[in-house]
């Protein structure tokens, strides 16, 4: 359906349909976030031999997150006297909007993709960078030392890991010769890129965890040092926006990982009868699980370890990966 | 034989090398080498004169070598936009070269009064000599300009370092006025060069009188006038012509004696030389129409100089203004456009060179002995230093144009010329002759026979060594005065050429 | 593109660049991995060897015909060779200068960078001279600029140096933006960034609107590049930057950077606009109808540079204004297009002469100011007594800067004048301004000479002259005089190896 | 035409997503405003500093490291801009571009080594 | 929906350029001046890209050029900021007017 719409002449009607579709999708994403948080808590609990949320919504605690959200909605909204008011208000929006915008280009299945733009990958990278600005704005406008330090750390970390992230993608682009995400998926019909680009995959996962500000790279919001990092002054739904954007990014990253390295909606050999959407969902869930798993397993890094790891280990490896891929492609044009 | 001119111009380099190899502490050695350095040019110029006197053609000495070629236009004409290294000499230059070489030797001789940094002094003096000799022998404008600027630079330092109290100021005003003059000159030269493709004087004369070179942009008639005016203006500053004379007075007062000798004797003459050689030589047609203005300027200069000399209290200033006045005579002669007048102008160039050198030499000695050159401070020197006073009187007579001395011949001829062409102007101008006599005698008589001053009672008179320069100069002055052909003969051919050029 | 095609390229055309690039990389790595006890000054010698090797390789590629590689974006034509030679020679001298640069503070950590940033800047300049495409041209320009920004501020702990760099970045950034904006129009109007292709399209354009836009783009590019050569009214940065930057950097800016600036101006503007029409009917060429504006820029630059220089007491500042003035002189040559015949040789020779005379002067300034951080004009007072050799060297450099005959500076100026007058109508006013400002420049140039020779110093210490600087000064002075007296050594070399840059 | 429509529609989608991304926080906050209590007092509005009175301005001067990393990021990120077109067009360009890019990445590597050796990458 | 005309881009670029120039010449804060310079450079980039698609003879070179100029602008900004930092540490100001060590 979307495909047909996309090739029809743009009109106001189209725009309205798009809007409705996008709102629909928004609710899907919000639903994902709700249950991602729940599952995260649940998985964490199970791995730590606890039970996890089990009160609201049956023994699985299915309504726990919903209740949390409602609580946030009812919470009083305070803005510190010394804060830079306009910036303080803009910051959560600035952080959230890009996270949702990047979803527009992700191909979920061969049918289900909203915007099919030629430079999808570049679009993702470019737009996701804006979030950093929102975070720094939040940290700065709060006029609070913890917030400022948190914001600066976040910025430093995000820009540091952005480079290996972006560079690891070059390997994938080299293999497909396109920045279009659909074409990248199509190129993995026979062989997933995780096989051809294992190094890139590793870098990408590590860097994306850092980009998501998740453990072990969650220094910007390190509770024990910085109370709550850049959003220490935020409360209620403003605070929720930051959390929301984090989890939406998790959705986006997991999708992107699936698309780039796990063959997207492509099925495993001989299993083509299973619908593409299911394949995508399976891979996607696996990545989300991986992210949660990492969070539980690994301890938080020190700030200097974090930065030096990014620049001194990931970046050179990423550079080397690019060159090795290019050379291999030159030497074995059939495989690569 | 062609090498002789190169040797003439560049032989002072020998002296420079000698000086550079000498330690800067050895005063007597330095002074000796400095003097020795000036001897080779003198000898060479005498040899040249000897050749000339024995009837050889001066054209044989012409030297011409490829030097600079601008642009890459050889496909049109191999000589286009080239500047050659070309030196030549004719009677006029020969006389001036002789005078230059002689005066430089005398100046070097008179340099015993220099008190410090002899090494630098003599090196610069010899550079100055190269410049002066080059100016008079250069056959193209660029080369001329090169030597011209060489004299400028070396004179700047000589005045600025070894002069009297206000030396730096004097040096600066010398530099600026002459700088402006040379800038104008450079523009004129460059226009000629750019439009004619050459700066050789003969070639230029040919091109200007016949018409432009077809390959390059033309030289319009208006431009010819503009160029001539530019040339005259440039040389007028050097000469100097009122109102551009202030620098020259300053230099004459502040510069060290030997340099004033050279400056008054030779450097000022470059202006006259340039006007005659390039103004009249290259632009004869145009020169005819501006001649009258030159004559008027000449008369003004003559009278103004005389008047100013009359009211000065400092003997050096008197002499400085007298130089201005006498340079007016040159203009008068040139402006007359008569053979006699031009001859007079040329005579004046040489004659004033000798006379001024003599007078400045003497005043330098006076100042050295008495520490002053104010007329009011001096007086009665005839009693204490009779020989000095005697030379001074003789010099002043020469200067005021006493018959039998060179000054008379030149002034007479110049005014003769002007009377022929512009009698009224000449009549006004001749007042100046009387004035000259008045101011000269007033000053000199005051100094020699005026009220005696006690403090000068123990002055020592000139010794025989000091009298040699004065003797040589006076001898020449008198010789020319008594026997003008001594000068007239070598000058004749040049004069003829000029007169043919302006069609008289 | 396969391996075969790649290897078939005439890579030898880029060897000079490759050598510089290689040297830069080598120096960077050595600086990083050498243990701290090895003196970083040794890097300068390696850099110098690199530059000399590059120069040698350039000489080796001199005979080859025009080579155009990488889609015509890199051209090795005579123009490129000629200017690269200047750049390399200049950079070699600057390297010598930098080797012995030893300020009191603020240079300890950055010594390594100091040397290889010169090389990256040089690389940028070299790319500029031989690029045939706007993109590479722009890259070269920025490589040079950005390296220079850092160089100007290389003394991290020195306020003046920081400030100079900041000002340089700001003005440089603005100029870059303006240039780029102009380039964007040029690209838009022609649809190409290749200079050859662009000029073909521009030649055929007759549409008035397009011609108007071409004019707009021309002036945007010119204004932007005027910053680089520091011509008025875009010169404001130069005095501050020259003063604040370390001396070798100042020398680099005034010699190499300026040469490159003129190279790019000639490259872009001439190759694009030489055959563009000035109006829709084709009565005038573009330059004919617009030369008045360039002439205006040139005039203002000369006046501002020379007049403001008069009241400078800081030597580096004074040289900044002097360098502005010289940019003005060169703009005269650009405005007049060298009278068609003399354009490239004028530029080349002028920049060559400027290189030697300016570097000679800067070397002396560096030695004299030593590590005292004082750069006032009084540092030179009485240098003649302390170190005659340095004083004479400085004196000759200054004389050449002033354009006194006998030095290379004179011949260079003569070429400009020739160009100004060889067309009809000549650029008389412009030439008059040039001559007039030259005379004004005498005041401050001779002011330095007065300090050097005529005054006696309070300081008695003899400056210590490192061997490298001695060689540098000797070569500079020698060349200044050699090219002044025998300019055809250079000019013939130019014509023989580069022709008239007809393959431009 | 279809290509063009698809192109325009795609960006229309992007725009729609942008609008929703901006609207969601606004709408949610508006709804929250209707529901939540609003009883501000001075204590609530003061800056949080672990429960004690805030001291000094919080906009303190920062460790220069942050800026250095910022600068480093600008350089490297922009350099990767060149890697993307190259990677896309790699198949068409062939070995020449490979060598070119090897040189380019080598230079980048030197830049990194430089920063490394100059202790720019060292946090603390 | 039709294509945006070339002139719109050109006017946009010109406006940006003028704002940038105005800012660069009048603002006293160095950071703002540097930002203004970026604005000017980006104005040129808009021109390049617009011409490259909608120009008289469209070609890809314009986009390539803009890529290069973006890179260079980044390098320039980096250098500018680095120098500003060095200066700030010594003078404790980013105001251009207070950079007055270098006066005759």
Overall structural class of chain D, as computed from helix and strand content, comes to: mainly alpha
Write down the domain tally of chain D: 1
Number of strands of chain D: 0
What's the number of helices of chain C? 20
Largest interface: A-D, 89 and 76 residues
Q: Which sheet architecture does the biggest sheet of chain C show?
A: 2 strands, antiparallel
What's the tally of helices of chain D?
A: 5
Low-confidence stretches of chain C are none
Strand content of chain C: under 5%
What distance lies between the first and last C-alpha atoms of chain C, to the nearest angstrom?
A: 28 Å
CATH superfamily of chain D: NADH:ubiquinone/plastoquinone oxidoreductase, chain 3
Helix fraction bin of chain D: over 70%
State the order of secondary-structure elements of chain D, H for helix, E for strand.
HHHHH
What oligomeric state is this?
Answer: heteropentamer
- Class from secondary-structure proportions of chain C: mainly alpha
Q: Under the CATH scheme, which architecture of chain D would be assigned?
A: Up-down Bundle
Report the portion of residues of chain D in β strands.
Answer: under 5%
Helix content of chain C: over 70%
GO molecular function (chain B): NADH dehydrogenase (ubiquinone) activity; NADH dehydrogenase activity; ubiquinone binding
Transmembrane segments (chain B): 6-21, 33-52, 87-109, 121-138, 144-164, 176-196, 216-237, 258-278, 290-311, 318-339, 345-366, 391-418, 424-441, 462-483
Protein name (chain B): NADH-quinone oxidoreductase subunit M
Keywords (chain B): Membrane, Transmembrane, Transmembrane helix
Care to describe what's here?
The complex is a heteropentamer of chains A (336), B (504), C (504), D (124) and E (104). By secondary structure, chain A is mainly alpha-helical. Chain A folds into two domains: 74 residues, no CATH class; 254 residues, no CATH class. Chain A has 14 helices and no strands. The radius of gyration of chain A is 21 Å and the shape is globular. Chain B is an all-alpha fold and 504 residues long. The model of chain B has no long low-confidence stretch (mean pLDDT 86). Chain B is built from 20 helices and two strands. Helix content of chain B is 75%, strand content 3%. With 504 residues, chain C is an all-alpha fold. Chain C has a two-stranded antiparallel sheet. Chains A and D meet through helix 1, helix 2, helix 4, helix 7 and helix 12 of A and helix 1, helix 2, helix 3 and helix 5 of D. Chain A: Its EC number is 7.1.1.-. Chain A: It is an enzyme of class 7 (translocase). Chain A: It catalyses: a quinone + NADH + 5 H(+)(in) = a quinol + NAD(+) + 4 H(+)(out). Chain A: NDH-1 is composed of 14 different subunits. Subunits NuoA, H, J, K, L, M, N constitute the membrane sector of the complex.
